[in-house]
Amino acid sequence: MLFLFLFFLSGLKKELIQGKIDELERLDNLMKYITDFKDKKVLVLGLARSGESAARLLDKLGAIVTVNDGKPFEENPTAQSLLEDGIRVICGSHPLELLDEDFALLVKNPGIRYDNPMVEKAQQKVMPVWTEVELAYLISDAPIIGITGSNGKTTTTTMIADVLNAGGKSAKLCGNIGYPASSVAQEANSTDLLIMELSSFQLMGIKDFRPHIAVLTNLMPTHIDYHGTLEEYIEAKWNIQKQMTAEDFVVLNVNQEEAKELASRTQATVVPFSTREKVDGAYLDGETLYFKDQAVMQVSEIGVPGSHNVENALATIATAKLSGVANEVIKGALSSFGGVKHRLQFVGQINGISFYNDSKSTNILATQKALSGFDNSKVVLIAGGLDRGNEFDDLVADLQGLKKMVLLGQSAERLKRAAHQAGVSFVDASDIADATHKAYELAEEGDVVLLSPANASWDMYANFEVRGDLFLKTFEQIKEKV
Fold it and tell me: Which of 27, 231, 220, 204 is nearest to 130 (CA)?
């Protein structure tokens, strides 16, 4: 018995050693064919996960890396860790004179605007300004499927990964979804697929980046404060395809005229999807989802409700078919898809009452889309949050017929006016926990308790994740007591 145990340990040790050797060999290969950064001075502006990943990768590739982050060093464990590993860090401010050094490249955090003085000075010096996804592309052995758009990016990215994995592919999530692309790219090989969520901020900082498949979910007037105009925002999104060729594919939502116009401005092969018309791609006809005249599944079989999720499913179907996944596999994976945390996430049932966490719905449009997937007469809606000064007149038609509303936060009084117009009764709540308890008490078997606030969370909670997590926690507490 002891011999067998020692034999097992020996095998495990060999496996671990081999894994380390494989990792070192892969790094060695990277070093052989990526020499662009060797002994070049590179500035990484802003940390967070993507900044740390970029700094560590550039250091591995032989760059002389400096990291500059606004958070004070003594409060900055990431900067402390980088310094311990021999990477130069400057924290607490962004000194413009730093750019007087002979940097060959600036890699910035996507959230840092281009009118930031450090970025402006770098551009004046004609210094390339990248985001970390460009580095991921340069080192990636794996083909990239890139997903961007105004709404639905995270859900569609996750749907695509689930369907491809169900089809026997090795799909790895990365990018704006929370896993730094340059970290995941280092671990991937040529048999993997990188399923990369991409924001407009990230796509402004690319040069040679080229996905094999690009997905544009939709275009809405968002982040105009960052981009300046809707036209510049759309151009940032459309950067995703600028290096693509006819051998690559752009999966495009042609429900929108803006997207139809973009289709004429790409070298890639356009694969359209639509819920409004039959197209040479993925489309909705009645209650059936098709790909090029082949029925794939029914709307009722999609695992998450809502008209927006029909669009997300069509984008996923198009991508999956381009990747060689069978219809039955697609149908099975999309039928079992349970949503993404805080994005119309099905939480569970208590006494036949279904709970959905849509804390990510921080505006009217998102809540309209969430409500579109349900019978209003069976919905108890929890809404309210930060008061941005807007009324909710545009939401009135979508509120009509609701069973009840539970309102909280700064915007509650404005939502009450909308509820009155819609003829819906409501109750007040002090916070999300109180609202969840009250919504459960108002609901009956067969009903839905839907957290879809139509407001940001910052009046009461640090972010929508905190708000959604409290909803999930309260659901579990109620369930334990039943």
Answer: 204
Is 150 a known ligand-binding residue? yes
152 is in an annotated binding site: yes
Per-residue model confidence as pLDDT tens digits over 188-231: 999 999 999 999 999 999 999 999 999 999 998 777 878 889 89
Which residues touch 87 (CB under 8 Å, ≥6 apart)?
55, 56, 59, 65, 66, 67
Whether the pLDDT of residue 386 is over 50: the answer is: yes
Strands 288-291 and 282-285: antiparallel
pLDDT at res. 341: 86
Q: According to the model, what pLDDT value does residue 227 have?
A: 85
Rounded CA separation 39/59 (Å):
10
Sheet harboring 426-428: ordered strands across?
345-350, 353-357, 448-451, 379-383, 404-407, 426-428
Q: Measure CA of the first residue to CA of the last residue in the chain; give whole Å.
A: 49
Q: So what's the pLDDT on residue 343?
A: 87
Residue 474: predicted pLDDT: 98
Q: Where are the beta strands (DSSP E) in 410-479?
A: 426-428, 448-451
Q: Which domains does the chain have, with CATH numbers?
A: 41-130 (3.40.50.720), 133-335 (3.40.1190.10), 345-481 (3.90.190.20)
pLDDT band, residue 313 (cuts 50/70/90): very high
Q: Are 461 and 470 in contact (CB under 8 A)?
A: yes
For the stretch 331-365, pLDDT in tens is 999 999 988 889 889 899 999 999 999 999 999 98
* Backbone phi and psi for residue 96, each to the nearest 5 degrees, phi listed first: -60, -30
> Which tens digits make up the pLDDT trace of 9-26?
455 555 544 554 455 455
Q: Which of 180, 184, 200 is nearest to 192 (CA)?
A: 184
User: How does 72-81 read in b/e, with b if 16+ C-beta sit within 10 Å?
Assistant: eeeebebbee
153 belongs to an annotated ligand binding site = yes
Find out whether 179 and 74 touch, Cβ atoms under 8 Å. no
CB 273 within 8 A of CB 283: yes
Mean pLDDT, residues 109-133: 95
Q: Which pair of structure tokens corresponds to residue 215? A: 């997905």
Helix (H, G, I), strand (E, B) or coil at 434: helix
